[in-house]
TrEMBL record:
The lineage of its organism: Bacteria, Bacillati, Actinomycetota, Actinomycetes, Pseudonocardiales. SUPFAM superfamilies: alpha/beta-Hydrolases. This is Pimeloyl-ACP methyl ester carboxylesterase. InterPro entries: AB_hydrolase_1, AB_hydrolase_fold, Carboxylesterase_BioH. Residues 167-399 form the AB hydrolase-1 domain. Transmembrane segments: none annotated. PANTHER family: HYDROLASE ALPHA/BETA FOLD FAMILY (PTHR43194), PEROXISOMAL MEMBRANE PROTEIN LPX1 (PTHR43194:SF2).
Length: 414
């Protein structure tokens, strides 16, 4: 790309901005770390000492390295997919590395990512996200239902709003049914659909399955069994199934395993296989998962997502139970493998819609599209401006895509 200014050329101003940033004062108030950001010959060393930030001169514990071209794209005013966040570059852009103590990076990821974001702000000013949505939670009714999962009764928290064709919404890994609140607040949607969401066992307000705290692991069979148990317990008549990320994957599983139980599935951010998203730091006792897990997923949110939506997603992820996120990733980027299943999905019985946000670097639009081509009768489209959490990261941008998907499935026009 053409030459683009980067903050490496004005390191003192960059670090001064860090020293006066309220978010970094909170993130770094109990931290003591020195790290570097490197681009070939350019190198900026940053020291945080209990909330005080300064240009460092000592040996960094770790370094973030990328090519000059990658950093130029990262620090652009409107960064494109796979260059909008350091973890996106690390996964998808060759030459992007963390060198040194990886655990120290995981322990201080919130600080590191904020320092990088401030480098972009130094050049272009604060970001201008889309407007915050108005979410009316007074529409939502909540209760518990007892479902039998793997032979054990478990009390599951269920939220509902609206009347009409049931739309069963599944949450992402380590999260809970709050991700469906914006849909439940959508008057047009709830006039035609009963929107239903539940918390998986050990998530949100649901009870746990038997076993030591922290032992949760999600498998394809356990996930499918739980969904079918909820459908039975609520007496749902062939609901439409909607989910993103791991919930999008299980939509494909349910279309294969129990097509007669659903009117159709809407699989967002899904593929037949998603490698490369496990992380040892989600279970490491030396890493605070309440701060690390939100940072691990933050770059999956599209850059222009409303601020309140972004913060709600991160806050929900910071509240996950011990081992809940890591146990879900056991399914998302491990146990789930639909390679041999997806060609045999009967879309005449259970239609399949797949759609993926352009900023999703975990399950890219290309990955989803390739899977859709292997499902006879499935349809796919990319969602511009959205990321990995389309249901909750930008409800206004997601609404027309959901309406189009529901129309394709033969439901009421929303």
């Amino acid at each position: 790309m053409t030459a683009t200014r980067t903050p490496f050329s004005d390191a003192p101003a960059w670090v001064h901005r860090c020293a006066t940033d309220p978010e970094l004062q909170v993130a770094g108030r109990d931290a003591a770390v020195t790290f570097a950001v490197r681009s070939d010959g350019a190198r900026v060393v940053v020291t945080c000492d209990r909330g005080r930030f300064a240009l460092g001169s000592g040996t960094p514990e770790f370094e973030l390295a990328a090519t000059p071209d990658a950093w130029a794209r990262f620090f652009a005013p409107d960064p494109q997919p796979c260059h909008h966040h350091f973890l996106a570059m690390r996964m998808r852009v060759p030459g992007t590395l963390v060198e040194g103590d990886e655990r120290a990076y995981a322990q201080h990821a919130r600080i590191v990512h904020r320092v990088l974001a401030l480098g972009r702000e130094l050049l272009h000013g604060p970001p201008a996200p889309d407007p915050d949505p108005e979410i009316d939670r007074s529409r939502i009714s909540e209760r518990y239902v007892t479902a039998e999962v793997e032979g054990s009764p478990v009390d599951l928290h269920v939220a509902t709003a609206g009347t009409g064709t049931p739309l069963l919404v599944l949450h992402t890994a380590g999260a809970d049914s709050r991700q469906a609140h914006a849909l439940m607040s959508d008057a047009a949607l709830t006039a035609r659909h009963e929107v239903i969401a539940f918390d998986l066992p050990g998530h949100g307000s649901s009870g746990r399955l038997p076993g030591p705290i922290g032992s949760w692991t999600l498998t394809t069979s356990r996930y499918g069994d739980t969904i079918l148990a909820v459908v039975r317990a609520l007496g749902l008549d062939r609901p439409i199934l909607l989910g993103a990320s791991m919930a999008g994957e299980v939509c494909l599983e349910m279309a294969y395993r129990a097509p007669e139980a659903f009117r159709g599935v809407i699989a967002c951010e899904a593929s037949e296989k998603v490698p490369g998203r496990t992380t040892p730091w989600a279970r490491d006792p030396r890493v605070d998962t309440a701060t690390f897990v939100p940072e691990w997923i933050a770059g999956l949110i599209a850059p222009r997502s409303p601020r309140s939506c972004r913060e709600d997603i991160l806050w929900t992820y910071s509240q996950g139970g011990a081992g809940a996120f890591a146990g879900d990733i056991d399914f998302y980027s491990g146990d789930w493998d639909g390679t041999e299943k997806v060609p045999h999905i009967d879309t005449a019985t259970c239609p399949v819609v797949m759609m993926t946000g352009e900023y999703d670097y975990s399950c890219t639009p290309r990955m989803s599209e390739q899977t859709a081509t292997r499902i006879p009768g499935a349809v796919f489209w990319e969602m511009p401006g959205l990321g990995h959490f389309p249901i909750c990261e930008n409800p206004a941008a997601f609404a027309p895509h959901l309406a189009r998907a529901l129309q394709h499935l033969g439901g009421p026009r929303d």
